[in-house]
Each structure stands twice: as C-alpha cells, then as structure tokens.
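Data deposition worksheet. Section B asks for the primary sequence of the deposited chain exactly as it was used as input, without tags or linkers unless they were present during the calculation. Section C holds the resulting structure in token form. Section D is free text for depositor observations; keep each observation to a single sentence. Incomplete worksheets are returned to the depositor.
Section A, Depositor: J.P.
Section B:
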Amino acid sequence: MHLYALNRGILMTPFHNMALISPETTQADVDFHTKVFREAVKSLFGN
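Section C:
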C-alpha cells in the first residue's frame, strides 16, 4: 500500500498508515488521495 501510494506521489507514515495533512492541503489533494486509495483497493481485490 505504501509503495503503491508513493509511486503516485503520496507519502504515508511507515507504521501507522496515516496521511499527514498540513494546513496547506487542499480539497483536491484529499480527493487525489481518496482516488489513489480506491485504485489500490480495487487492484488488490481485482474489481
């Protein structure tokens, strides 16, 4: 999951699976994270 996200420009904390969100994070950034996470889950389950 970490490598999948990292290859798409999202850095997750190594042990807690948390996204670190700064005050500069935009709604578009959050939407992109959601899109990448959804794609990762789909690729894992073959949907």
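Section D:
The radius of gyration is 11 Å.
The chain has a mean pLDDT of 89.
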